[in-house]
Design a protein that fits this description.
4 helices; 11% strand; mainly alpha; 133 residues
Length: 133
């Protein structure tokens, strides 16, 4: 089998296409979630924590080298504030995903709790009851 034919079979498998769609949708949804967390949730959290925005917190390692108004060499710093913001965003997103998965699992359990017996199961139950007599 030729390489092109194998590639066509690989791509035409349903799970590969489904995975590709999931990755694209996931990336787009990730942007929405990040915007929600950083633009909607983080400002009130920052306000509750004393109105501070962690993203500006950093430890300078090397100052920028300037010649007049022109930057010759960028400043180097450890931006721990951006890390704190990202970590808080992660915790919020992880909690949201946890709540969503918990709700989905609850719905699945409710649907699986009382499944209707199949006609075969009903018949077997009747046979069992008759044999008990």
């Amino acid at each position: 089998m030729g390489l092109i034919q194998e590639y066509k079979e690989f791509i035409s498998r349903g799970n590969v296409v489904d995975l590709a769609v999931a990755v694209v949708i996931g990336a787009a949804f990730g942007k929405i979630v990040n915007s929600f967390v950083s633009d909607i949730l983080m400002p009130p959290i920052g306000l509750l924590m004393g109105g501070s925005d962690f993203s500006n917190l950093k430890i300078p390692i090397q100052e920028a080298v300037m010649e007049g108004n022109k930057v010759m060499k960028e400043a180097v710093s450890i931006n721990y504030g951006a890390f704190i913001n990202t970590f808080i965003e992660f915790l919020i997103i992880a909690f949201g995903v946890f709540i969503a998965v918990k709700a989905i699992n609850k719905i699945k359990k409710a649907q699986e709790a009382d499944p209707e017996p199949t006609p075969s199961e009903v018949l077997l139950g009747e046979i069992r009851d008759l044999l008990k007599k």
